[in-house]
Fold this protein.
Amino acid sequence: MLNPHRPSFSPPSGYFRVKVVQSFEELVSSPFEDGVNAICWERNLLGDFAEVVRGLAVEEGIVTLDETRLRGLSLSAAGRAAADAMLEDLRLLTDLGLSPTLDCIHSYPRDEEPAAVRTDVYSFHADSATAAADTYLCSYNGPASEGLRNEEAQRRVDIPETRAMLLQAFGGKDDEDFLGYLAENCFDLHYAPAPGALPFSFGLGNLWRIAVEYPDSPVPPCIHRAPETLPGQPPRLLLIS
């Protein structure tokens, strides 16, 4: 069966930064260029992913899944098709030399102490690396990851009021040492939506490759976040590498 609750990928009209492809080969080989910083292999996967979640019975936190655990679940044919689809994605990325993880997520940890900039995954952010790298991700169940177009985002550290609070917490001058403080704490990777911004859903079942912030990257990083966890929502199934 098809996933009955699958929201499709629906970026804002005219959003040129996403390229949609039709195969895994296109996903891994298409370059980030001309402003494109996200590539989506749009799919409608067969299987009952909600049945897999019910079988896992995750009530809090994050549980990492592997083949042994998925194969050990008692599932219908539709549930088994869902498990097989996730295992195939793990295989595809592992064969690329990557180290993907598949998690059942009831909730992520949040920042324990209030700060001028939230740095948990519920905040819009960019991934970063010291050398050329990409992030792959796919949501299979529950609320899907969300993206924010770069033109509708501002780094939180560039908002004067926020920067002033961070500078006060740093206790120094707005100089190279302060910039190092921002980078060390990942404050410079988090973004605020502009007024009227339209975040978009990555959809369920779609395998994404998104651009990361690193030196000399040809495109700006893809801004994204984990969706807010609301009472009564099912746990997420998320593949990330």
Remarks:
- The chain has one domain: 18-153+196-240.
